[in-house]
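Recap quiz, item 2
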Amino acid sequence: MASRRIIYYKLVILANISIIWVVFAFLFLYNIILIEKELVTGRSLLLFSLAFAIIGFVVSAALVFYLKNAFRHYPFWLSVMIKMLMTLGLFILIAFIMLSSYYVFSEHRTLNEFADSFYKEVFLTRGFMIFMLDLAVMTLLTIIILEVIEKYGPGGFWGMMRGKYIKPRLENRIFIFLDINNATAIAEKLGHKEYFRLLRDFFAEITIPLLANGGEIYQYVGDEVVLSWKNTALNKQRCFRFLRQAFFLLKRREAKFMKRYGIGPTFKAGIHSGEVTAGVIGIVKKDLVYSGDTLNTAARIRSKCHELEESFVVSGDFLNDFSTPFAYKVNEIGEMEFKGRSEKEKLYSVIFE
Amino acid sequence: MILKRIFFYRLYLVLNIALIWVIFSLIFLYNIIEVDKTELSKRRLGVFALAFAIIGLIVGSTEAFFLKKMFRKLPIWLSTILRMTVTFLVFSLVSILLLLAYYVFRYNGSLSLVEFEKNFVQKVILTPSFLMAMIDLGILAFISILMLEVSDKYGPGGLRNLIRGRYNKPKKENRIFLFLDINDSTTIAEQIGHEKYFNMLHDFFEDITEPIIANWGHIYQYVGDEVVLCWRNTNKNKHKCLRFISQAVEAIKSREDYYIKEYGVAPTFKAGVHAGDVTAGYIGVIKKELVFSGDTLNTTARIRSKCHELKHSFIVSIDFLHDFNAPDKYHINEIGEMEFKGRKEKSKVFSLEFN
């Protein structure tokens, strides 16, 4: 299923964050060890980092899978506070359960005794306070990292770190321009704020098939989203599969949208592929930018959808060297001028069977 | 004269970073204090925080003002390592000088290098605490570098808006939009090749950054070779918007020689200005972005594309000029009409010139 891909994507983020937790755990511990050497032995160093890895994993899993969107209507600082309190509560609960089971099973004491000693020997000690503080810092960092990763998009953060686009480079890419049908009419009917929420939900829905097919969100331009793949035969198939999955997913979600907005959104898309120059632009606001006629052409192909009354229009360049799978029906529907070419190029429609 | 706004913008970032340094230093210190209470008294806590604030300011400003630009062409992981090494050296130098001064003044100027070596090298540098402080500093320097990078991705004010949660609920706003792009971009790209063209685009955007910041413009996004700027729709911002255009023209003109030398062409630009209501809010799950949605943007894009047709560099709409008396130095003339979506009558558009 498509949503498995999202879990996988989130797991990768989780693993990265757990590593950061371990690194910081070492540092925090190092601060302590150096002052008081006898306090910590070599064996407990390993235990400590293992414990931090587990805690980090649990806390960030809770954040990634459940809490991420739970408070998204609150201001960021408020949602951070709430999340931190919740993770703190979660952590105390885990610590309590783990320690109590340790006590009950390995030292054969009763729970009552344990509760007593838990408060006196663990909860109220300074070590525990430090630990809590370190944990709070780590949780804050995790929340911020998750937010920043989201801003960059999948792969964007590492691309930036690796300096992939420091020098502009020529790339052959597939682009899909995709937008909601009858956007203006819907906006007038719903009012602008409600329309914006519809747009947000719509983009959230198509994220699932997009991740499942390894696509990249290039940017949002007005009510339109621009998606992109590297131009390979496999990615062309993925690109088609994305359209199909998104189309049927929205059909399945129609009832939900009808209930909430009174409208079931459908979309149109224009697909084109070709060479673009990719690079990072800007000084105080940096962004990865694809520049070239390919993008303008793709946008014009998308605007042809309306004219030709087709939902999905594909350029001849995209279909070049690509035998479409059986599940898709591709028909020639017209011609269009491409910038910089003397002859008109053919356009094709895509229908799912 | 254009105020050096970029300087203030960077200074503001540095202050934020210094604040983070203080917070972290207190946490690091707290880790130590709790373990070994006797070692540090209350008074030293304040001194420690102050010291960290100063170090943070120094490190942050070297990063923001000098190092960031120096290693721009390198991948970030490499430039981070280099920058951290430089930071470390700067810090060691500063701390040695400070300690030297402290010794000289404290002990009435009797500076003998042997004694200094005995007191300083053995008692300070070779202790575990110093090593620890160095590691803490390393982490903080790393966080500072990342923060500068991330704040560049969000753009000025972007992070603050996110933290304040200003657009968590979609919000209707009245804004001025300015679409700006290079004249004859396709021809230039064909003439000098795509890679060189992209470098020129980069330089061009760099050169207009100063006027953008000086006039408090918000960089909304880059669409292809075009950049979209916006302001809140107030009378004052309309002045700023016009001032931006004239300053940007100046800035590009003053760099003409450089462009000719480097690329063989001197870029000029055209711009379309319009104002109106948009809905602002965050969109996206795995890639979250602040998005302005509405016909105002499409109209602005169409006004900008009229520049070519009407052969004027700068075109403003009647909506922008509404309730606004442009200063005398701007010459605004009616040049035509165009259809706006959702309006029965055609609306007037005007050309903008200045001397």
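Residues 5-35 of chain B form the longest helix (31 residues).
Residues 5-154 of chain B form one domain.
End of item.
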